[in-house]
Amino acid sequence: MKKNIVLIGMPGCGKTAVGRELAGMLHMVLVDTDQMVEQVDGRTIPEIFAQEGESVFREKETAAAKQAASMTGVIIATGGGMVLREGNMQALRENGVVFFRDRDLSDVLGEDLSDRPLLSGDKQRIYDLYEQRIHLYRKYAHHTISDTNTAREAAERIAAIYERECKG
């Protein structure tokens, strides 16, 4: 059975961009759990946060995590808060190799974060979230990918590790 590649990391660190690169390199399908939530719900994540709050979004995110985890041989780009629920990560790790994209926060702050409900308008918030979550990213990751400047560079590193460990 071909293992999934699971991408975790801070909001705005480029998980989806890395996933797109990997999909092209490895000829695998990219599944984005945030997009799954939006497709099922019919609203954007900022709308869900504004109308129903973070806890309702987290429930929807857990459903997406379980659905994505049931797939085989796909790349799964997760939302930045996926690690907040142990059950999400247990499901994703069952048939997945988890890669943490540990990107420098100054680079993340250079991205457009306006569609990130927990970050928009408050640069200090990203540092606070990082402090709250870094131990979880490290706990659940099989591999940490840091010191990469581009999504392509991160994807090349991940592809090399995945092919070395999971060919078969």
Structure at a glance:
The protein has 168 residues and is of the alpha/beta class.
What are the defining features of this structure?
single chain; 168 residues; alpha/beta; 5-stranded parallel sheet; 8 helices; 14% strand; globular
Strands of the widest sheet, in order across it, are 2-3-1-4-5
Structural class: alpha/beta
- Strand proportion, as a percent range, falls in 5-15%
- Averaged pLDDT: 90
Output the helix-strand order: EHEHHHEHEHHEH
N- and C-termini, Cα separation: 8 Å
How would you summarize the topology of this molecule?
Blueprint: E1 4-8, H1 15-26, E2 29-32, H2 33-41, H3 45-52, H4 54-69, E3 74-77, H5 86-94, E4 96-102, H6 105-109, H7 123-140, E5 143-146, H8 151-166
Parallel strand pairs: 1-3, 1-4, 2-3, 4-5
Helix pairs in contact: 1-8, 2-4, 3-4, 4-5
Structural notes for this entry:
Helices cover 55% and strands 14% of the residues. It has 168 residues and is an alpha/beta fold. Helix 4 runs parallel beside helix 5. The mean pLDDT is 90.
